[in-house]
Each structure stands twice: as structure tokens, then as C-alpha cells.
Amino acid sequence: MATGVPVISAPLSCPLVPPHFFNSLEGEVVNVENSPGEKVSIDLLIGLDSYWRFFTGETVKLSQHLIAQKSIFGWIVSGVVPVSETSFVSHSHQLFCLSDFSEKAAHSFWDLESVGVAKDESSFSDDHLMKQFENSVVHLASGRYEVSLPWKNEFARGCLLENESQSRKRLNNTSRKLAKTPTLEKQYHGVFSEYLENGFIEQVEDIPNVSELPHPVYYMPHRPVIKEGSASTKIRPVFDASSKGYNGISLNDCLEAGPSLIPNLIEILIRFRRWPVAVCADIIKAFLQIQVKPEDRDVHRFLWNDMGTVKTMRFTRVPFGNKCSPFLLNATVKHHLSQYPTSHVVDELNQNLYVDDLISGCDDEIEACAFIREADSIMQQASMKFSKWVSNSDTVGELLSQEFSDRSVTEKMLKVLGIQWMPTEDCFYFDGLELSSDAYVTKRVILSYLARLFDPLGLLAPFIVVLKCLFQSLWRLHLDWDEIVPDIIAQQFKCWLQGLHAVRGWRIPRCYTVGHWNDVEVYQLHAFGDASEKAYGACVYLRTLSKDGIWRTSLVYSKTRVAPLKPITLPRLELLAALLAAKLLSFVRDSLHFSANVPYTCWTDSTIVLSWIKSDPRKWKTFVSNRISEIQSLTDPSQWLHCTGNQNPADLLSRGISGPELCVSETWLHGPVFLREIRPKISSMKTVSESDVNEGVVISEMKSNPVLLKFETPDVVFQFEKWSTFTKTLRIMAWVLRFIGNLKASKEAHCTEDLTLMELQEAKVHLISVVQRENFSEEIACVLEKQSVSKKSPLFKLSPFIDGDGLLRVKGRLQFSHLSYEAKHPIILPKGHFSLLLIRHLHNTLKHAGVNSLLVRLRDEYWITGARRMCKRVKRECITCQRLDTAVSSQPVPPLPSMRVNTAPPFSVSGLDHGGPLFCCDTGSKKFYILLITCAVTRAVHLELVCSLSAEETLNAIRRFVARRGMPSVIISDNARGFVAAKKLVLQYFGSNSPKWQFIVPLAPWWGGWWERLMGSVKSSLKKTIGTRSLTRSELEITLFEIEACINSRPLTFVADDVEDRVSLTPSHFLVGRLLTSGPLNDLEEIPDMNNVDLVAMYDHRNQLLNKFWEKWSSEYIRNLPSCQSSVSGRKGLNIGSVVLVRDQNSPRLLWPLGVVQRVFPGRDGLVRSVEVKTSKGLITRPIQKLHDLEISSGVGLESLPVEPELDDQGVNISTGKQQFDTDHALSPNNTTETETAQYSRYGRKIKKPTILDL
Fold first, then answer.
1. Distance (Å, whole) CA 876 – CA 857
2. Do both 584 and 617 map to the same domain?
3. pLDDT in tens, 595-604
4. How far is residue 367's CA from residue 343's CA, in Å, rounded to a whole number?
5. Domain named Integrase catalytic: which ranges (predicted)?
6. Which of 666, 701, 736 is the last residue of a domain?
7. Taking all residues of the chain, what is their mean pLDDT, rounded to a whole number?
8. What pTM was estimated for this model as a whole?
9. For a 10 Å CB count at each end of the chain, is N or C smaller?
């Protein structure tokens, strides 16, 4: 990547190098462009990562201190040049061009920096790999070509190690899998037998020692691939040339991929629609028709398990699996075709042969038959045969059935480069996609359907853009890939799928014209562009006039883009659509091989964009200017016209239409009505006037004229704000004073040694004097005139006087004390940057002392106004002190969430937690765990004994719980790995009926205190019940069930001494209507026979009892919950940009990592209790109780925070119910809301955000 800067360095002076130094360069002509002493500037700075790429390795020693190195630019001389016998002059590298360095070579270097931006104009012959290939390819007497592998270099070739043992292991795995399907195994071995019979492979009979071979040996593992839809080969082996050896290097690592010689797929399809008679074919086993030279065959070895006998084989041809195989095939075909004179057949093979598929055609049947014979004859000269010949013409079909009966097909439907084509009807069609009725719609499902629609020409673009916009709106919700989408989006997606059924029966004519392509008298291209707030797009139409005088218009190519996530104005989107239209027009024109003079017209319905295109791009802002310049480089502004929105077919691309509407739209396939007229009045279309343009939008995009403002500021001798430490400030002043002294002294008296203590003391006095004169000029003048200081002055009470050094000091009342002179009369300093540097220096000198200690030390020598406040600031801003002294963040206890204080069926809102491990006497050392499931409302518990903490065991326990207690609505747990993985399994198992799983903030167990408390009760009961005994698993499960019954029978309300109120509310009342630990019911034999009326009455009585339980729950349990008023008041809240210390209990405090707050999550009460922190290891979410605020921030206040959803203390969005702290949700920069806020330096200057040019 190249970076442009105004100046690299100051001008350099060319050295004087005597000519005799170059005598060692025999045969070279020295041409030094610059004379000695001439000032030259540096134009290009080459980094060390690329520096040595320019050297060839040739080095010549010119003298003892001068060396010349050969580079691609010429000889580069470096070292020192002797001025005399005892002195040398050292210079940087100086370039001497000893050969012709043309301007073309310079341009080729700069073009390297524009790869992917500028159009690649380099030809294949310029590539060194092509030259190497042309020099090594051999046309054998048999007609077959023999090629060499394109090795990166000899060093890479020598790094390839033999990997037979690794390949044998993979062969054994493949053989075991094939043995399970004997039919498949037989077919797989049949392929290798066919390869051996045809000479594609050969057996390595005698395997010599690998180290004795002059070339490397490499074994390619292979595996079968089944392709049911293939007409020729159902199963084929795929070889893995990327398998790493013992040194981590594979065959593909040592080979060059080569340049891409494959024609553009879309260009081939566009040209395919020209011809009335279509012809398609492909080469039989194209890669295996090219022979590899013997010295490269041993790197294509592989092992073949031939019915129990492992044989060592190797390819004699180019295998499919090497990364250079496509290059070798296409380069061989290009080389073979270059041997023939230019003709229609050769041009079609060059331009329309996509790897091994030929997609072409002709104007009539006679020409097509001749084309087939000649193309087949040309390729057979290279031992390549075409097969699967097919055409839409019956006449050509008869020829194929007669002369190519074994190499032709008569299928009614086949794929042409991925597009379905019906030769009998000569039209394109599309397959529909089905969605299973029991499948649930997720973001992954929608994206998969979007990716499965292969539409390279954009024929379905108005229909597909609807799904693109739907997916973008889904992306804004930040859902997980496997999370069920909202019902509204799911319904829209299913409606879109219904429209896909209509598209399935749609037939699109393949050919542009009815008559011959070469008989067309006039060709015209028309490009349309349009945009909306959701998407923008462009389409290109071809309008032809045949000899019969009929105009025909056909859609050629279209493209759509969804609008960026960042909001952008509609005129700018219209401009993007216009630029896309210009690019598509240029692409179609080049694809059809039209000349630059072919008539074309570009259309837009935006008068603003039209006015921009027809104006000077330099008058607009960067975004508009760059795109207007590109449009004007691709098209002529005079060819841009205006059309209304209802006449613009690109309007269908910007807003989208349904499948049935697309199938009946004549405007989409054949353009607007005025293009279908015999003589459309294009020249009389509406032009843009100034009154048609929105003046406000135009002005907003115009460049602003700079205004120069001149401010007069008083002269400042020293800008202390530029210096960050007191020591640096002192030394700078000392060097300035020495420089002044050296100027005044003679040359012999100049001082050049390091600074002395006396000089530093003198510099300190001068610094203080400068500071005092800048801040206390009026007070100094009053003292010099022996007048009293003004009462408004901060020095009025200090009675200042000027000492012998000219410094202001405090007079005070300690003149007769035994203190030092500095302590009795401290130097007066103002509050400012210099005093801040001084206090910081003393703070570090005193080993980070506190405020009082710092003040005591200051008062011994200085009197600073507002010293205590500045000492506190220094202490607060000291990172070292803050890391060790700052307290942990805290907030008041939050209110209980609504789902815990409102009535709900038992276990509707459940919390999960694991406890253990436990051991049983009958299972050895196997560990067991307790899975506790508690109800957030009734406080009931459900205990399960699980074998591990895995997700599968958790799922099984939840299934048992659901079968006995019913399906919960919400599950809340901590972020244990088993719970995180179990969430996905629960979603897969229960589907749309699965509960909503929410996670608390990581490392915040107190957020789940309502289940941690009950887990403590379970453990306490278990310890007291079992003691030191060892139980079997069955006994342990029974004990857990009994503990569950006891805990569910605990009272939730106050147990009164009143006889009338002796029944307390327990969780078991909500589960079974009575205490689980109570005695048996009355004798059931006394219960009379029950009828329907009695049963209904009992049901009503049960509901009445349940309602009384809930009333008692609301009046006695909820209202008597402790208020939990914490004695710790909340500290200052964390904001975005706050620097924090992340608490880690596993390491000492000095090793705790630092982080910056990226996002904050306010709760229901508006207080922040969890934040997202960026550390050196990535983004993490932590509760504020795990963070220590260093009170260093970028100045972002709470009122300027990004709008976050209102959350309760469980991190749940109150309005939508979405979990905010889901660990499945990727905390990536794409999901982080960025807030543009003003940032200031520590000196109060506003930091300007760098402008990124959108080129």
C-alpha cells in the first residue's frame, strides 16, 4: 500500500565521487544525471519489507569503503567517500543509472499501486509465467501437449517433502468409509481403472529411495465426490494438493497459481444471446488431456487401494486439484489457438471457451454446422474432443446426431454456465425454491435462499432486490444467525417465496433479435439508473433495427445495490445509480465488441443528478465530484437525458416488485414504451433547466469558499504547553541560554559539553522569571515602583517583593525564624501548565506521595496559587496511583424486574444453575452434578441429577423438566459454556416452541442471586442429611427429590403465633395446593361418587383456592420483601471513553488489564450497571463491580451517550424482551454503536476527526 505525503525529507546534496572508483564496473557506462553538490529531493521512500525485492544479488566492491549493488533500476552505490587520507564523508544511498530506464518502466511501477482501482491493461505475454510456459510447452507427435509445472522457485521446489505416511492414513480412512457402501466403492475403483486404461495415470513399480531422486516426491490424498446430476460421471476422485507435509508445506504452496486466462462469465453470456443459432459443448476430461513432463510427475503420486492391494500411482497428465491446473489448461488452449490464423471459429474459441465449456453460436444453420466441424477439428489437433454438443436448431441437431452421435445430447433442459436453458424453446428459465412447512425462518435461512438464486445477468433483479432489502432490515436488528426472526419479517419472506412459484414458469427469450446478428443495420444501447431510500440499480437495453425495418429492444444486463446502512441523501443515491448505469453501459459495449462510436443514451429521472453530470465536477464536494468525474470519463455528458419515473425501468430495481408482476412486465424485458416505437422522439426529450433543479440540494453539495481570518495574539516567549515534563522544559531553557552565551563568546570559549548543574539552576530561574512576567506583569510593576499591589490581585495578602534574581517571593512573617531562605520566602507561581509540570515532577520524585505530603514539599520552596486543587488533580491524573488506589465502581441496588413481581404460572420464568460435583459409591470416580431450576415468581425449585455439565446432559434435564412441569416462557442462567451451547440445542429441539433463553452479565453471579441462594439451601440440606456417608446413585436421586420437597414446603410469608392464621404460604401450594411434607389425606374410601356437576364444583373451588394463594402472595410475600437499601452509594457512573481497570481475581492488581468503555447499558432506572469494554484481547462485557474507574475520559457525558434500549437488571430489553447480554451475539465493531462526540486534548484544544476521502 502506498501513502502520499507532501514532503519525505529535506533536499539532499549529491556527493562528489571520483570517476576512478567505477573502474571495477567493467562494460558499464556511468551516467550521473546530477552534478556534485546539486540539491535533489526524495520522490519515493521504499520500506524495508519491499527494499530487497529490487536487488538482483550482484555486488561489486568499488573500494575499501564503497560498495555497488545491482538493482532493477541500475547500480546503487553506498558507503563513505574519502575527502582526504584521514577523513571521510558519509552519504546515504545515491542512485546511478547505468542502463536505460524508460518512462514506460516507471509507469509500470506506479501501476502496481493501482491494482484493483485502475483498469488492468497488462497483456498475458508480459507475465513472466506466460513466458516461462511458452518456452517449456511442447507439442508431441501424438498431438498432445506436454507442460511443466510453474514452480515458484528452486528453493520452494526443494522444500517439498515426501508425505507418504500421511497420505496412507487418509487412504485408510477413505477405504473404511467406502467399505460401508460396496456399490460406491466399486464405482470409485472403476474410475481409477479407467484412468489407468486411458493412460492418465501409471503405476510406480520400483520405488527408489526418495533422497536419491533428483526431483521432489509428493503424495496427494484423495476422496470421492458424488454428483447425482452429472450426465457423464456420477462419482469422481478429488485430489488434495493442499495437504501439508511434516514441515507445514504443501504442493500448492510451492506452485504459482498463474494469471487468470478465463474469459468473464457475464461477458460470455451476453455474447451468447447474439446468435439465432446457439451451439454449446464441453471438452472431454479437459485437464487429463494435457501431459506433464516426466521430471514433475512424482509430485503427483497417490495411493490406490485396489481391492485390498495398495498401489503407488502417479499422474502422467494434469490432475484437477493443483492450483495451477486451470492456468495450465487455459494457457495450453490459448497457445494452441495461437497457431491458427484469425477466423470466426478461432475468435469464438478464444473469447467464449470458459475453462472447458464452449458457449457460442452462429447466424444460420449452415454456418453453425461449419463452425462445429472446424472447432472440433481444431481442438482434436490438441488431442481434445468436444462432447455434449447441443443446439436449439433442428438442422444442427440432425448433424450432431449423425456425425457426433456419441458426443451429443438431446436434453430438453440443461445448464449454461449456471443458467437453465431450454434448447427446444430457446429461452432461459429459473428453478423455484421450497421452504419446508415445519422449518422456522432465521437470518441464516434467508441468506441461504438469497445465495442460491444464481442470476448473473440480473434478469430477476427487481424481484431479488426485495429479499436483499428484507435481509438488510433484518441485519439492523442484530439477531443471531439461528434466532427466529420477528413474525412480520417471516411473513414477508414467505410472501416472497410464493412469488418465486410464479417466476418458475417464466420464460425469457435467449436471443436479442429475430434475424441474423450480422444483418442488423443499427445498434443502440440505452442505460437507465434510479434509486430509492432502500436500494439503487441500473439496467442496459439493446435496441436493434433489422433489415425488415422493425425495431426490437431487449434487456441485456442489470445490477442492484441496497442502500448503505449509513444514511445518505436521495440525490447522492441517484448519483450512485447513474454511475452504475455508466459502468454497465461501458461493460456491455465492450462485451458485445461494439466500437466506441456506437449510439447510446443514458437516462435518469433525477434533475439534480442530470445537472451535476452536465457541469464541471470541480465545483462540487468530494463525494459528488469524484463520481461525476468517473461518469464523464465513461460517457459523454451530452448523451444523458431525463425521463419520468413511470417511464424508467430502473424504478423497478430501486423499489422491487413481486414475482407475478415481474412475469407480466413488458417494461422490464423490452424497456419503456418510447423505445419500442418505430421512431422514438429521443431528441425531443425533456432537458433540464435551472427551475427544475432543487436549489437547496445543489447549494449543499457545492464546495465552500475558504475565508482567511487573521488573529493578533501577544508574543509568547516560550510555549510551555508543548512540553510534557518539567525536566524537558528545564533542559530546553538551559540549551537556549547556552546558545545565547556561545553567540556572545568567542569561538574558542564555546561550550560543547553536557549541561552542568549551574546551568540548570540558571535555566530554572529564567523559567520562573518568564512565567511570572507573563502572569504577574502588573504586580511586578507595582513592586518595582514601590506601590502596593491591587486588592483585586491574588497576591494582595502575600505582600510580594522582588529578590536579587528578580523573582517574586512571599514576604510573610517568618523573617526571624531559623528556616531556610526559600522556606521563609517561597517563590510565587501562578496556576498554569508550568506549575502543573512542577507538581508532577515533585509527585514522581516523592514516589507518588499524597496531597498533603506534596503540599509540604512545595511550601518549602514555592507558593502556588490554588496549589491544593492542582495537587489533587495531579494525584487524580496519575495512572500509577489510580491503578493502585481507585475504588471499585458501584451503583444502588436496582428495582426488581416485572417478571418477578407479577403473577405467572409456576416455572414460567425459570433460573438455571449447576452445583457439585458429587460422587456415588457405585460409580467409582465418576462425577455427578445438580441442575437446579427455580421459579422466579413462586420460588419453587426443581432438582435434576446430571452426569456432566455438557450441553447434551443439560438438554436432557430440560426435557425431563418440561415433561413434568411444563414449558417455561423464559429461562435465565449464567454464561457457563454448557448453558451457552445448550441454548442452541434447545432451539433446535423445540423449534418455535422453545423458551427465550437469556444470560446475565459475565462474571456477575449476584445478578443470579435468586437461584444462588436456593442452591446454597440445597447444598446445606445435602450436607446435613448425608454427612460423611456415601450413597449410591439411586439413593442420591431419592435424597435430592426429598430435599426438593422440603425446600418447596418452606414458608414464603411470616409464620404468626395466631391460631387463626396458622397456614403460611409455601411454593408447594402453587404446585399441588398443599404442603408436600404434610401427612396423608383423609380416607379416600369415604369419598362419595362424583358426577359432572361435582367435578365442575371442585374445579371452581380449586381456582378459588389458587386465587387466595395469589392474593396472599401479593399482600404478604411481595410487599414484605426487604427493601435492600444498600449503604454504599453509587459512585460516578462510567461513560463511553472512560479508562478502567478490569478486575481479575486470578492475578495481582498490577497485572490487571486496562480497558476503554465502548458501550454502556442503562437499566430501567437509568443507571449503568454493565458496560462493554475494549481491552488488548478484544471486547468483553463486565458488570461495573468488576471495573475500577481511573477517571480518565475523553469528555463524553451521559447526555451524549448513544441511545440504548431500556433494560432491567437482567439485561433484558423492556420494550422488546430481547436479551442484551447474549454471549452468542458477536460483540464485534459492526454491532457497536459509535457516537460522534467532540474530543479535546489535555490542553483544551478540540481534536478534529480526520476526513476519509470516499474515492
1. 18
2. yes
3. 888 999 999 9
4. 13
5. 901-1075
6. 701
7. 79
8. 0.53
9. N
